[in-house]
Amino acid sequence: MKNTVLFFLALVLVFTMQSCSMERGSGYDDEGNLYGRISISGAWAMYPLVVRWAEEFRKEHPAVRIDISAGGAGKGMADVLGNMVDIAMVSREITLVEEERGAWHMTVAKDAVIPTFNVKNPFRTKILEKGFHREQFQEIFLHAGRQSWESYLDVDGNTTMTVYTRSNACGAAEVWANYLGVSQEDIRGIGVFGDPGIADIVKNDPLGIGYNNIAFAYDINTRKPFPGLAVIPINIDGTETLKPEEKFYDTLDQLMEAIEKGLYPSPPARNLYLVSNGPPENVAAIAFLHWILEKGQMFVSEAGYVRIPESETDRHRQRLPVISKPS
Fold it and tell me: Which of 66, 168, 204, 293 pairs with 311 at a CA distance of 20 to 30 A?
């Protein structure tokens, strides 16, 4: 009886180990169907796009499970270099230190960080007419102490401006800091976690100012800013009022076109990256990355991002490991 029980337990152990191995593994089954699990974490900026890609990819490969979480580009990079996930979403430039630690990356799309304010701001008309130039944004986000909206709009009054920034390490804050000529740690303001957090708090503060990734400022269905939010135009040359060619914020499509043509400054326009720890080895993840560079690009504009040039997708395809599907 004892031997029978031990034999039964051994069978259960073997079956469990095989099941776990199959769950962790990825590849193609005997019928040529892709299976496996892909784990992804990182930038809020990329979350809506990668979710869309995952939905479309799984229509073709339903046996692939894709887990996606957003927590900031810094978290994504830490997760992938710590082998906690297969892929990181990173919405800033990859540093030399990260590359030396094994960060293998490819460009998958482009977007921008944009300054936002409340649509009920009492100076809305003036803000949209004049915009703010870089030096004004530097004064707003880099100097501590009380500031007034009127001081930046050449009107009388002393209405306090509430400045919000990100509390977590993230691509948006790093890119906005780069535009201001500093690092994220130098930005002043009330710290708020996550892109949705800043968008929500600015929506509820008529005197608030912040910055957001485009995906959290514009509704991809209406192609307009989300209710409650408005975008502060960047006055590139610092003239008294915006020039006609600087007015491209009314719709998401106008802004995307401006980024593509280089009319919106870079930074805060930026490339978006997917990162692995060394060249990817997970077969399902490799197939997903190939799909993103090929079929996935057709969903980029629809999701509110800018496609990368075909020459760029070709270059990254050549860098990706080749996987063979069973015949």
Answer: 66
The structure's pTM equals 0.87
Q: What is the per-residue pLDDT across 244-269, written as a single tens digit (0 to 9) for each?
A: 999 999 999 999 999 999 999 999 99
Report domain extents, the chain.
32-110+271-319, 112-269
* DSSP at 324: -
Q: Is 301 helix (H, G, I), strand (E, B) or coil?
A: coil
- Domain 112-269 falls under CATH 3.30.930.10: no
The CATH number that domain 32-110+271-319 falls under is 3.40.190.10
CA–CA dist 194, 206 (Å, integer): 20
- 32-110+271-319 and 112-269 agree in CATH topology: yes
Among residues 285, 283, 300, 321, which one has the least CA distance to residue 88? 285
Tokens of 212: 């957001």
Distance CA 308, CA 300 (A): 9
Torsion of CA 293, 298, 299, 300, to 10 degrees: 70
**3-state SS string over 117-162?**
EECCCCCHHHHHHHCECHHHHHHHHHCCCCCECHHHCCCCCCCECE
**Nearest alpha carbon to residue 214 among 187, 241, 190, 195:** 195
Q: What letters, b where the CB count within 10 A reaches 16 and e where it falls short, cover 181-217? A: eeebeebebeebebbebbbbbbbebbbbbbbbbbbbb
293: number of Cβ within 10 Å: 21
Query: Which pair of tokens denotes residue 205?
Result: 């503060």
